[in-house]
């Protein structure tokens, strides 16, 4: 991708780019819809990414082409206005940085991506973090990873209008090769944890799609807030399973089930952190399986295809566990499998899923990569 983006830049601007930024997608190993409940998540940055080649301008213009979209993004930093399309992520980050007091300078460039859009692999957060990095290069200031993540989240929440949590931006800002990242979404403390030795992580894209501006995501958030209010806390992070069992009776059915997922999921993430640190793939796989059931039956964010994919994965030999990943309502599932079983697993799951659903899935063995970086 690196030579390709360089070539693309040269063909548009007639010279080599001054900087290349790589910003990865992410998968979440466990901890779904816990981030905006101030809870715990365990995502990793993946080896699918956005590559952005840029050069600085001496005015306050941004000009940016994507090989994947026909419309370029063009605007002046003196007048950042809403417009339609993918450029909203770019303008949103500029807006949030400016609001935070960073000195913004113009730049121009091109980007290429191999992160599928809407698959639950955070193509939008990857773009936000790439753009934040480009501004830090152009302005010649340092943007520390927590701050960068918060800027991206603000762009997404307040400019784009998707009420998402901090997980995606945080892992893309702070990921490290060969490691997943345990994040405490309350104080943004992090711990790098390697995948269990002898395992491979498989991403299984059902090819069904979601959008975070759809009502499902925000509706789940509201139901969690209702449940937190019932327990007299600001976030469900502060309710233990015991407290939940004692006090859930008077809570209406839907918020009660949503809360049960979040509270039990937080516990699973912490257990997963311990299991992974001990290299215990069996335990990690079991936690993934339980997490999927909780998302399917309590949080209700899976669809038929995700359930089929996960059940097929769990039935194959060498699989420790599987679950859907990301916001839900479509997109990807993941499986943790024995290294030596991985290639056969990929072939098997591909043909079985296609036979069951009539859809051609995208299946990849995936490696944990660095977060956003200048190459
Ligand atoms: C999306 C959001 C994240 C998180 C997940 C669900 O990816 O962007 O903040 O809430 O859904 O875990």
Describe this entry's structure for a reader.
With 375 residues, this protein is an alpha+beta fold. It folds into 2 domains: 2-191, 2-Layer Sandwich (Ribosomal Protein S5, domain 2), CATH 3.30.230; 195-366, Alpha-Beta Plaits, CATH 3.30.70.890. It is 42% helix and 22% strand. It has 11 helices and 13 strands. The chain has helices spanning 2-13, 87-99, 123-139, 145-160, 167-174, 215-230, 241-247, 253-277, 281-297, 304-315, 342-357, and strands spanning 19-28, 40-41, 43-56, 61-66, 73-76, 107-113, 179-184, 190-194, 199-205, 319-324, 332-338, 362-366, 373-374. The chain starts with a helix and ends with a strand. 50% of the residues are buried. Bound molecules: alpha-D-galactopyranose. The site of alpha-D-galactopyranose has 11 residues, from helix 5.
């Amino acid at each position: 991708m690196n030579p390709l983006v360089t070539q693309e830049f040269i063909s548009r601007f007639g010279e080599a780019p001054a900087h290349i930024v790589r910003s990865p997608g992410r998968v979440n190993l466990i901890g779904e819809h816990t981030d905006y409940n101030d809870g715990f998540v365990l995502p990793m940055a993946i080896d699918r990414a956005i590559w952005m080649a840029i050069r600085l301008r001496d005015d306050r213009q941004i000009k940016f082409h994507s090989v994947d979209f026909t419309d370029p993004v063009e605007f002046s930093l003196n007048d950042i206005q809403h417009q339609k399309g993918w450029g909203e992520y770019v303008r949103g980050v500029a807006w949030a940085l400016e609001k935070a007091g960073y000195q913004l300078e113009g730049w121009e460039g091109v980007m290429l991506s191999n992160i599928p859009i809407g698959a639950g692999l955070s193509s939008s957060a990857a773009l936000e973090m790439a753009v934040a990095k480009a501004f830090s290069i152009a302005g010649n200031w340092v943007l520390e990873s927590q701050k960068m993540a918060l800027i991206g989240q603000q762009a997404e929440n307040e400019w784009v209008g998707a009420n998402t949590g901090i997980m995606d931006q945080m892992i893309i800002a702070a990921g490290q090769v060969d490691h997943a990242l345990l994040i405490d979404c309350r104080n943004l403390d992090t711990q790098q944890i390697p995948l269990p030795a002898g395992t491979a992580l498989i991403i299984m894209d059902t090819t069904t799609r979601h959008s975070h501006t759809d009502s499902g995501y925000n509706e789940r958030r509201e139901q969690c807030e209702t449940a937190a209010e019932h327990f007299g806390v600001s976030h469900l992070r502060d309710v233990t399973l015991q407290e939940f069992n004692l006090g859930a009776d008077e809570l209406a059915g839907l918020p009660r089930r949503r809360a049960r997922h979040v509270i039990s999921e937080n516990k699973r993430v912490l257990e997963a952190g311990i299991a992974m640190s001990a290299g215990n793939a069996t335990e990690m796989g079991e936690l993934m399986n339980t997490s999927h059931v909780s998302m399917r039956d309590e949080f209700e964010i899976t669809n038929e295809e995700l359930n089929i994919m996960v059940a097929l994965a769990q039935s194959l030999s060498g699989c420790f566990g599987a679950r859907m990943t990301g916001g839900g309502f479509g997109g990807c599932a993941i499986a943790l499998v024995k290294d030596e079983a991985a290639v056969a697993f990929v072939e098997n799951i591909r043909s079985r899923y296609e036979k069951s659903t009539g859809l051609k899935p995208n299946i990849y063995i995936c490696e944990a990569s660095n977060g956003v970086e200048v190459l």
